[in-house]
Protein 1
Amino acid sequence: MDVLSLPDLKELSGHTGGPLVSIYLQTQRFGPDSQLENVARLKNLLKSASAKLAEMGFRPTEIDAVLDPVRQLSDDRPFWLRAEAGLAIFADGGVRVFRLPEAPPETVVVGAHYHLRPLLALLGSDRHYYLLTLSQKRAGLLRGSATGLEEVDLGDAPSSLAEALKWDDFEKQSLQYHSATNGTSGGRRSPVFHGSGEPDPKDEILRYFREIDRALVEHVKDGAPLVLAGVDYLLPLYREINSYPALCAQAVIGNPDSLGSETLHDRSIAIATEAFSAGQRQAAERIDDLWATPRATSDPETFVSAAIHGRVETLFVSTEAGLWGTVDETADSVEVHPLRRPTDEDLLDVAALRTILAGGSVFSVPPSQMPRDAAAVALLRY
């Protein structure tokens, strides 16, 4: 059981033929009777998958060959111990399973392509963020998502104030040393010292933070929200020198060394979620502003073709919409069908996936949040 990644999505999208079975299942995290409840849900969805395959003309032995690897999960106790809010299961005689941090609508789709759109909201529109933990003893960058936090390597960035200043001991002592020629000592140079008093702690911390900021901007290029965590007197100093454009106004207040990873994740993702919502609102406003221009469209043939060519900047897709048809990339044509045909694929899946792969943003939202009350709306790059 894996956590979904963009390479996984690319790999799944390359499967064609069939029959390919996609199952989305809501699950209970481990607790009393959770395995029994989860297995019961799975068995009901497997019955639905079996019925769909039978309707398509597959024999019982062929259906068993596709679904048996999924059925075997029922007795796998360690598998259910790691359950989260949901599962995405993909079967074609083998099986791939992904843990989902949010409960999906339960559904079964059988066709020539995997049904991937429920996964796209997890990967579209920068659904990850960064958490920069700051203290004088330790600094670090973490990549955050709904499932947790993981460390990000910042290369040669100093990991503490002491490390940032280790090559400048002479500044710590507020001494400047240089050599001067002493005319009465036979040409030998004697030391001359300047300065007195203690160094300014604020200046030292600012130098430390500038080095962290430099490394962060070099290593983080995707524009995801950045949340700060630290004691309240340090955070304004970092904001003073910050050059990362997506720094969140809110922060996790407290010493990150003592808060613990679970608390850091809970508090930081709440801040990041607000940033995600703001990004969605801003994208919807841009579509409204450009609606009278060729850059905003709800025409399926236009935005599906544009997505295939990497021209979609932002795509809104209704969670309850489906759009069936075919794509012929060689002929650069898109054909939309009013009713689903056996060889059709969901064109909204195609458009959303291609948008993400080309670096665009995808917002999969309920119908009530859709711009222009459409099934899908795209903002084109050009």
Note: Residues 243 and 365 are 32 Å apart (CA to CA).
Protein 2
Amino acid sequence: MKKLFVSLFIAAISTLCALSADWANFARYEQANKSAPKNPQAVLLGDSITDNWARMHGDFFEKNNLVGRGISGQVTSQMLVRMRRDVLDLNPKFVAILAGTNDIAKNNGDISIENIYGNIVSIAEIAKLHGIKVAICSVLPVYQYPWRKEISEPAEQIKKLNAMLKKYAAENGCIYVDYHSAMADARGGLPESLAKDGVHPTLEGYAIMEKILLKTFSENK
């Protein structure tokens, strides 16, 4: 009985510690959101791919009135929780959602393709309810995650998720931004010229994405 009590006590403390942590990382952009331009052309919501993009090519964001709200390592559940603070409060014309690769890499544990899709759809629906145009971006190609080499056939999982997202966008008044088709190599991954580690784009990779994104915004004013 004593052992059970101790085990339950430890479990309760662990839960409280977990709950007290800033799991969604609201703190990351708390100050930046206070000084961010209001009504930007778009907020780019995402993970390290978006995070690195804003860091490596900030001029692109500033010149085109874009706000980067990527956080390295994040999964779609965390982005969904961040929607109000990091997107809605800024009242952009568009939100460009680039999400899902870390879910497939199991950064936050097992999750089905259907539930990844559901999180992205929820983000899109929240944005639409607030009059924000939704651009759902394809997950970038990945042949192998360098930090999760045990993940089986990520390229095929990404293709499946992208097909679901493309269909949803077409049927629900959203824009589908197809980075994947323009960047994938014969293996269904990213060539080294576009991503040294096979996941995170180089400036050359971002140049392709920038051209596609700006064309998307121009065609959907």
Note: The first strand starts at residue 42 and ends at 46.
